[in-house]
Amino acid sequence: MDKILHPAKSRGTANFGWLNANYSFSFANYFNPDRLQFGLLRVLNDDFVAGGTGFGTHPHKDMEIITIPLKGAIKHKDSMNNSGTIKAGDVQVMSAGKGVQHSEMNANSDQELNLLQLWIFPDRQNVEPRYDQKNFEDKLKPNSFTNIVAPESDDPKEALWIHQQAYLHLGEFEEGKNAAYTIRKPGHGVYVFMIEGEAKIGEDILKKRDAIGIWNTETINFDLIQPSKILVIEVPMN
Q1: For residue 210, what pLDDT band results from cuts at 50, 70 and 90?
Q2: What's the rounded Cα separation, in Å, for the pair 230 and 209?
Q3: Handedness of CA 175, 229, 34, 18 (dihedral sign)
Q4: pLDDT by residue (tens digit) across 213-231?
Q5: pLDDT digits (tens, 9 = 90+) for 50-88
C-alpha cells in the first residue's frame, strides 16, 4: 500500500474577503509542485462564501465538476438554461465538455455558504455539456458508505454519473464503529477527505479536513474515533 498524507493545515489558502478558500491541490494563485493532483482528481476546494456574494459567470471546458454544499445553499445558473438552488444534502454534477459558462452565488444574504468543489479529468473530450443534481439526505445509510457519483458506463440507478471511471462515496459514522471501503477497479486509488470528525486509517489518525491518498491496495479500513462524515473519492491513477 502506498499513501500520501495531506493534513488540513497543509492546504493552500486564499482570503478575498467575500471568499475564504482552501485548496487541496494547486489552484489559482496557489502553486505547489508536489500538490498538482491525485490521479485524475485535479481539484478539491473547500470554499466559504459570504452571504450575498459568489462566483460570477465564468467558463469551463473538458472537466467533470462535482459540487457538494455542506452548509447553506448555492444559486446556480448556466449557459445550458439551467437555474436553481443546490442546498446542503444535495450533490451537483456538471460535464463541461466542449464548453459551458455558469455562475455560483450564495443563495442567502445573511448566511455563509460552505461548499466542496471537485474537478475530475474526463475520459473523453468535447462531449455535449450536461447538468444534474440530486438530494442524498434520505439515501445515506448510517455507518456505511453511500455511492453518490459513478461512471456513466455503470448505468447507476441511485448515483449521479460522470464521464470518468470514478466513484464518490459519502459516509456518516458513529463513534466506535468500524468501516471498510473496497476499491472498485484495479489501478485506482482513493483520496479520503474527512469532512467532520476523527478516524484512524491504518497507522494514521485523520481529523476534520485532513486527507489521505491511498493506492496499490484493495481495501481501506476505518476505525471511527469520533462521530464523522467522510468523503471517499476513487479515481484512476493515470
Answers
A1: very high
A2: 9
A3: negative
A4: 999 999 999 999 999 999 9
A5: 999 999 999 999 999 999 999 999 999 999 999 999 999
How many residues are recorded in the chain?
238
User: Quick one: cell of 42?
Assistant: 485535479
Using the Cα atoms of residue 32, residue 36, residue 38 and residue 42 in order, give the sign of their dihedral: positive
pLDDT score at 222: 98
CA–CA separation, 101 and 119 (whole Å): 15
- Which cell goes with 94? 456538471
What pTM, to 2 d.p., does this model score? 0.97
Half-sphere exposure of residue 45: CA atoms within 13 angstroms, side-chain side: 21
Instruction: State the Cα–Cα distance between residues 217 and 47, nearest whole angstrom.
Output: 31
Per the structure block, which three cell numbers stand in for 40?
485524475
Q: What are the C-alpha distances in Å from 56 to residues 75, 133, 176?
A: 11, 20, 43
Q: Which residues pair with 194 in a beta bridge?
A: 230
The bridge status of strand 219-224 relative to strand 90-95 is unpaired
Q: Evaluate whether 30 touches 111 at the Cβ level (below 8 Å).
A: no
Ordered by where they begin, the domains of the chain are 2-236 (2.60.120.10)
| pLDDT score recorded for residue 180 | 98
Residue 200 has what pLDDT? 98
8 A C-beta contact, residue 44 and residue 8: no
